[in-house]
Write a structure and sequence with these properties.
The protein folds into two domains: 122 residues, NAD(P)-binding Rossmann-like Domain (Rossmann fold); 38 residues, no CATH class. It has six helices and six strands. Helix 4 packs parallel to helix 5. The longest helix is centred in the middle third of the chain and has 14 residues. The chain starts with 5 loop residues before the first strand and ends in a 32-residue tail after the last helix.
Length: 175
Amino acid sequence: MCERVIRVGITGQGRSGYTIHARWLRMVQEQFRIVALANRLAERRAQERKELGCRAYCDYGAMIRAGGFDLFVNALFSRWHSEGTIAALEAGHHVVCEKPAAVRVVDFDRIVRTARIAGRRLFAFQNSRYQPAFHKIQEVLRSGKLGDLIQARFSYRAFARRWGWQTRQELWGGI
C-alpha cells in the first residue's frame, strides 16, 4: 500500500489517454486517483466526468492552471507533447509523456532542462512495462539463474490496421 495516493490529471482523452492510461489508472486506485482530465470534446468530457468522478476541462492549459494534481499524463497529439509537458513541469507537476516526447532534439533538450530546473520527474510512457511477459523476464533476471547477462531483448508484436491521426506523417505519426 502506498503512503499516499498520487492525484493524476490526464490530457488527451483519445485512444491512449482514455483507453490505455485512464483504464490502467482505474485498476490501481490504491496508488493513483484520476482527479482531472482535459478533452476538447464536450460530450467526452461529460462522459468521463460521470465515469471517473473528476473535474473536466476543455484544454490542458485550464487544467494546469486549476492544479490539484501531482502527476500530469500527456497523451496529446504528438506535435503538442513538448509544449504540454513543459507547461506542466513549469507549473510544478511530475509528467508521464507519451511517445515521442518531442518532435525535435532541441525540444526534448528543453523538456529535460525544464524538469531539472523545476525539480520534477519526467517519465516516458512505456506500456510494455505492464505486460505479464515483461514482469516474468524481470523475475528471471533478478533470480540470477541465467548468470551474468550482456544483453536481453524483449519483442512484442501485434497487427492492427489503424487509420487515425497517428498514421499521418504530417502529424508526426508513424514509426
